[in-house]
Amino acid sequence: MRFIPSHSRNRNNDSSLRLDNRRFTYKELEAITNNFQRVIGQGGFGEVYDGFLEDGTQVAVKLRSESSAQGVQEFLVEAQTLAKIHHKHLVTMVGYCNDKEHMALVYEYMSEGALHEHLRGM
Ligand SMILES: Nc1ncnc2c1ncn2[C@@H]1O[C@H](COP(=O)(O)OP(=O)(O)OP(=O)(O)O)[C@@H](O)[C@H]1O
Questions:
Q1: Which pLDDT tens digit goes with each residue over 68-116?
Q2: Distance between CA 95 and CA 23 in Å, rounded?
Q3: How far is the CA of 75 from the centre of ligand 1 (A)?
Q4: Residue closest to 36 by CA, chosen among 56, 62, 58
Q5: How many angstroms separate the first and last alpha carbons of the chain?
Q6: Strand 102-108 vs strand 58-63: parallel, antiparallel, or unpaired?
Q7: Which of 81, 87, 89, 105 could bond 62 through an S-S bridge, CB–CB 3.0 to 4.6 Å?
Q8: Which atom of ligand 1 sits closest to the CA of residue 111?
Q9: Does this UniProt record's set of keywords contain Nucleotide-binding (predicted)?
Q10: ipTM
């Protein structure tokens, strides 16, 4: 499956993923997560890590593991869908990483308390 036509690929032609969100390098993710130190969850794509951006914003970094049952395309679909959607009942995607073999999605962190508050307001 293609997400953008080949004629509109970005100039360096490195990816079929083009989003308005911030693009992180794997090195930046290492810094943000303090070398992937704290696992906060486990999803279909792999582990989810706690992290902090330079401005102190807490984020959840969903790193796609090589052994993930879900494929690269599914990962890209999630990234591309969330990049387009901004809704008060959906967690915001801050950015993504598509750096050689590393793929990750970066979301605003949502604590359980915040989630319950969120759901109560629905
Ligand atoms: N934005 C977030 N803030 C805080 N924790 C998160 C966030 N996103 C995910 N997590 C943690 O990571 C776990 C797995 O995330 P999530 O369910 O989104 O993964 P997934 O890959 O979509 O799972 P699946 O596809 O198997 O349903 C969550 O249960 C939660 O503990």
A1: 777 888 888 888 888 787 777 778 889 999 888 899 999 999 987 666 6
A2: 6
A3: 13
A4: 62
A5: 35
A6: antiparallel
A7: 105
A8: 4
A9: yes
A10: 0.90
